[in-house]
Amino acid sequence: MTSPPKRVLVTGASGFIGRETLVPLAARGFEVCRVVPTPAGAASPTAHLCDLLSGDLERLMGEAAPTHLLHLAWFVGPGFWTSPLNDAWASASIRLLGAFAASGGRRAVIAGSCAEYDWSCETLSERLTPLRPLTPYGRAKAELYEAATATAARSGVSIGWGRIGFPFGPFDRPGRLVSAAIDRMSASETLDCSEGRQVRPFIHVEDVAAALVQLLDSGVEGAVNIASDESASVRQMVEWVCEALGVHGLARFGALPTSADEPARLTAEVRRLYDEVGFRPRSGLREAVARTVTERLAVNRPAAARPGD
User: Fold this and answer.
1) What distance, in Å, lies between the first and last C-alpha atoms of the chain?
2) Do the Cβ atoms of 235 and 283 come closer than 8 Å?
3) Is the torsion defined by CA of 207, 159, 266, 143 positive or negative?
4) Phi, psi of 124 (to 5 degrees)
5) Is 107 exposed, middle or buried (0-12, 13-18, 19+ CB in 10 A)?
6) Beta strands per DSSP E along the chain
7) Is 47 domain-assigned?
8) SS3 label, residue 276
9) What pTM was computed for the model?
10) d(CA 36, CA 11)
11) How large is the C-alpha radius of gyration of the chain?
C-alpha cells in the first residue's frame, strides 16, 4: 500500500533552528516547502512568498497545499524577551494555524519554549509544572499554546507543541552564551561571566531540529519538552569551550553579577520525548560543545583563509 503524501510547510526555514530541519525532513520522506518573507528568497519552486505578520495566509495555504506544518518563525533578535513583536507573532501564528486547519491540514508542530513554565520549579514537567511565564516572550508562547490546543479540539488537526530548552550551535547569533564564548576567546579576548553556577537544560540545535521533525512525524500530541536528560551549568559550558579551544584564563568567572531573580537550577523532564516520540540526542553536551566550537570557527574563518579558494 502506498503511504499518503507528506508535504510540510516550514516557517522560519532559514533561521537558527529551521535550517537544521531540512535534511531530517527530507530523510523522513517529507516534500518540503518553505515560507520566505522577501522576493529575494522566492526563486525556488518550493519557496512561497508571504509576510506571516500581514500576508494572505489563506492564499499561502492554497498555493502550498501542505498536509503538515512546522511553525518555527518568530522574532528572536536582540531584546526578544521583552519585544512587543511577541504579541504580533502570537496573533499571526493563531491565524496561520487557523488557515492551515481550514485548508485541510492534518498535522502541525509548533515551536514553544521552556520560558512558558513557572521557573520557581526546578524540574520543568509537561504534566506537573504550571505555566507561569515571567517575560512577554514566554507569555506570548503560552497564549499561543492555549490557542493551538483549542484549535486542535475544534478542528481535529493533530498538534504537537515542542517546548525547547536552551539551544546552542554554530550559527547562533553573536552575544549568546556559547557563541560569545567562542567568538571572544578564539580571538584571545577575555570573557566576563557571572559565577556561572546556574544550571540549565542546554541542547544542541541539531538535536532540537531532529527532535521537532521526529515529533512532527509521530502522532504524539500536546506539549513535549525538547531537551536532554543531561543539564549543565553556565560555568561548565564555558569551560568546555575553553577546553575545545585550548585556552586558559580568558573566562573571568564572577566578573559579572548573577541576577537576583535568576533561578539557580532548571532541568527538563524528557520522558515524553524519549519514550513516546522515541528521540535521543546525538551526543552528550561536552561533545556537542566541542563540535560547535569546530563548526563555528570554520564558519567565522575569513574566506581567504579557507583551503581550496
Assistant:
1) 50
2) no
3) positive
4) -90, 110
5) buried
6) 7-11, 31-36, 47-49, 68-71, 107-113, 123-124, 158-164, 166-168, 191-193, 199-200, 202-204, 222-226, 232-233, 251-253, 267-268
7) yes
8) helix
9) 0.94
10) 8
11) 20
Q: How many residues does the chain have?
A: 309
Tens-level pLDDT at each residue, the chain (309 residues): 567 789 999 999 999 999 999 999 999 999 999 999 887 766 677 899 999 999 999 999 999 999 999 999 999 999 999 999 999 999 999 999 999 999 999 999 999 999 999 999 999 999 999 999 999 999 999 999 999 999 999 999 999 999 999 999 999 999 999 999 999 999 999 999 999 999 999 999 999 999 999 999 999 999 999 999 999 999 999 999 999 999 999 999 999 998 888 899 999 999 999 999 999 999 999 999 999 999 999 988 764 454 444
CATH code, domain carrying 17: 3.40.50.720
Cell 498535522, residue located: 107
Whether 255 maps to a domain, the answer reads no
Amino acid at 162: G
| 161 in a structural domain | yes
Residue 210 lies in domain? 7-233+260-300
Q: Under DSSP, is residue 273 helix (H, G, I), strand (E, B) or coil?
A: helix
Structural domains in the chain (count): 1
The answer to whether residue 192 sits within a structural domain is: yes
